[in-house]
Each structure stands twice: as C-alpha cells, then as structure tokens.
C-alpha cells in the first residue's frame, strides 16, 4: 500500500540529522493496538526506516535499515522503539550489535562532574588504567581493554573483566582518517577497521594506508573531544604510535547518511 509509505527525503552527508516530515503522519487511532506492535510469529515490523546511499556506482546497493515498533506509554501516547538495525553492503545484510563502553561519557555540558564519576566513566583500559580502550571482548561485546592487556589476558584468563563471562575472541578496533593538508578545511571523517587478536604478529605503523592517520576510536565515533579533556586527548594522540594493519572490514563513521534517500514505511 503506497499510502503507508512516506515520500523520499534527500539528506546531505553528515551526522545528527533529524527526520521531520509533517506531510506523512501515523494516527494510532486508525490502527488496532496489536497492529502497532511487533508480531514475533509473523515477523511483521510496524515501522521500517530505509536509508539508501545515492552517490556513485561504488556505493550502489548500500543501505541502512531500521526496524522498529510503536510503544504505548501509560498516559496513552505512543513513541517509536527501534528493535533492530541492519547494514546492507554489496548485497550482504549485517545485523548491527551494540558495543558497550564505546559512548563518549565525557561529552557533557555539566562541567561539575565528581572526580569519582569521571574515573568510573574513564576511556582507559580497565586493566592498566593508562592506554585507551581499543579491544572488544566477544561475545559479551565489552570494549574495555587496550591491545597490550588483551594479549596478556588471553594467555592468563578466559573471563571478561567486566561481566566475568567466558570469552571466545578478542577484536581490536582501530580508527583512521585522511590526513588534512595545510590549507584543507577542518573535517572529521574517520574509517573504522578491525583485527582479531588470534595472530601472533604485531604489525607496525608502516601498514597505515597512504594518506591516512590513526585517531582515537572514542574520538572517531563521537566526534572530536572537547578542549577540557586535555588528559584524554594526550592519551588519544599517544595511541597514534600503536601498530596498525589494513582493515579487514571498514565502515564510514560520522558520514552516514551520505547523500541519499530516506523513507519511512
């Protein structure tokens, strides 16, 4: 039914963009309450947001799909609740999973944060308390270790230091961005790469692709850190000396959605 699909909306490349289309509304009173919720038996999602990349043949078929439902509050109002997110690349669909500990907890307008709270929300490795976290523990998905401590942990223990659950793999995640020329405008478009810790070799920084430089993962996903976080900035730039290898997979961080189409179904 085409009446249930919104018109296509064009977006420029960038983050923190809001979808607003007053011409397309959903009136909950026109639907039965069970139709507004997710039906597990039929696998019917009441809401689908489909963002398609529309920039050249290189990205043909790339899209992001958000599957959601409507949730009713106690006061009778409804809100949209995301259930799943999928990324389609070259015809292959990937289910996105949340990484715990990757959010920028320092990015707050409240400058009067207690020292103990800052310590608890630290971006440093939970083992050495000095290097920046860059290694993910699977399957619990806790980003809590630096690469050095992760190598040590896999020989000495088999439990996550956060949840104490057994882990079966360690995934190191690095971020790179294109180097800026002296006259280039300021931009922040990092690329995320990953490498499993199964290899015994420790690659050197010479394996960074030409024209790229390494940045902090926390900074790559959440944007440049605030000037007040000088301590964290020093740690982040010290991380530039860490070994880097070409990406086994990569995704644009901070650039989605690219010029493309976004529709509400």
Automatic annotation (TrEMBL):
Location(s) in or outside the cell: Cytoplasm
PROSITE patterns in the cross-refs: ZF_RING_2
Lineage: Eukaryota, Metazoa, Chordata, Craniata, Vertebrata
Gene assigned in the entry: RNF157
Record's GO cellular component terms: cytoplasm
Root EC class: transferase
Pfam family, one: zf-C3HC4_3
Gene Ontology MF terms in the entry: ubiquitin protein ligase activity; zinc ion binding
Keyword Cytoplasm: yes
EC number: 2.3.2.27
Main location: cytoplasm
Originating species: Homo sapiens (Human)
Zinc listed as a keyword: yes
Assigned keywords, A-Z: Cytoplasm, Metal-binding, Transferase, Ubl conjugation pathway, Zinc, Zinc-finger
Protein name: E3 ubiquitin-protein ligase
């Amino acid at each position: 039914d085409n009446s249930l699909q919104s018109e296509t909306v064009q977006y420029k490349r960038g983050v923190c963009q809001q979808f607003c289309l007053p011409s397309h509304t959903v009136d909950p009173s026109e639907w039965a309450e069970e139709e507004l919720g997710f039906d597990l038996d039929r696998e019917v999602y009441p809401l689908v947001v489909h963002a398609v990349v529309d920039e050249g043949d290189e990205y043909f078929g790339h899209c992001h799909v958000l599957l959601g439902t409507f949730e009713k509050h106690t006061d009778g109002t409804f809100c949209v609740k995301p259930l799943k997110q999928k990324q389609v690349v070259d015809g292959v669909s990937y289910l996105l999973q949340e990484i715990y500990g990757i959010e920028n907890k320092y990015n707050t307008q409240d400058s009067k944060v207690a020292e103990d709270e800052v310590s608890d929300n630290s971006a440093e490795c939970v083992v050495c308390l000095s290097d920046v976290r860059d290694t993910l523990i699977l399957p619990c998905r806790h980003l809590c270790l630096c690469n050095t401590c992760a190598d040590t942990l896999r020989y000495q223990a088999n439990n996550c230091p956060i949840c104490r659950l057994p882990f079966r793999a360690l995934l190191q995640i690095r971020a790179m961005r294109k180097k800026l020329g002296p006259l280039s405008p300021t931009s922040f478009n990092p690329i995320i790469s990953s490498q499993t810790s199964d290899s015994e070799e420790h690659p050197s920084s010479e394996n960074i692709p030409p024209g790229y430089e390494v940045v902090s993962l926390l900074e790559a996903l959440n944007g440049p850190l605030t000037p007040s976080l000088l301590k964290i900035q020093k740690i982040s730039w010290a991380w530039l000396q860490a070994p880097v290898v070409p990406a086994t997979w990569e995704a644009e961080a901070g650039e989605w959605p690219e010029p493309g189409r976004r529709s509400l179904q």
